[in-house]
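In this supplementary section we document a worked example of the pipeline. Step one takes a protein sequence of length 248 as its only input; no multiple sequence alignment statistics are reported here. Step two produces a three-dimensional model, which step three serialises into structure tokens for compact storage. The input and output of this example are shown verbatim.
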Amino acid sequence: MERFLIEKIEAIFVNAKMKRDFLAKLYCIRQALNAICVDEHRRVWLSNSGRQLLGHLMQNMQQDPTSFYKAYDEMILFFEDEDNLDMAEAELKLRGVPELSFWDIVLDFILLDSFDDLKAPPSAIYSVTKNYWLSQSMKYSTISTVIWSMLKAKRQRLQYPNGFIAHFYNISEAVSPSITLGFLGTDQALGELCHYFKEQVIQLVIDLFNPKRVRYTNLEEMVEDVWVVLQTRTESLLTRLSSEILPA
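The serialised model returned by step three reads:
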């Protein structure tokens, strides 16, 4: 996993030229993010912000986020039950995720992996997004059907039908059609908004590895700097997405 993670980050920027330096920084980032998530106030803030971000993104696509909110809230409840953590850890290790951490699950497994997936979408989805003859509603309906079919097949192979991956698929089913159409579709305004979202996430990752933004001195100082980076990038996204909800 670390080798693939290194390649993924180095594809974004080349600041940590030495693998050892990269892994040392990654270790520190994990520790800082874990410390942040131990703080209930900050953990809830991050959770609520993620909910708002994706909800606003769907609203910009003129889609009702109700099903997403339901799936997202169920995921949060899943993680709040400590009895589920061992199951989630086992599921994620099968997919090469080394730890149950904010970095490994949210930033790497969910966000960065999703951006990678959008670079090479299934041909059935790509052809629909680029079809100028179809209306947005028809594109959305078709993409939703394709994604639903793909996720149905994946659900049937799950080792834990009610585990983390099942909850993740529920969220994906709700939000993926909007995100896919936004990133790959022909609507320029929506495309710009989605790419702004991606740019902010990537810049957040870059900031975390940047010693000019984060003090790699001691855990306490690093936690505060990482928290500032998280707040700054998240609030920038929230402001943009909430203020530019497109008219129907």
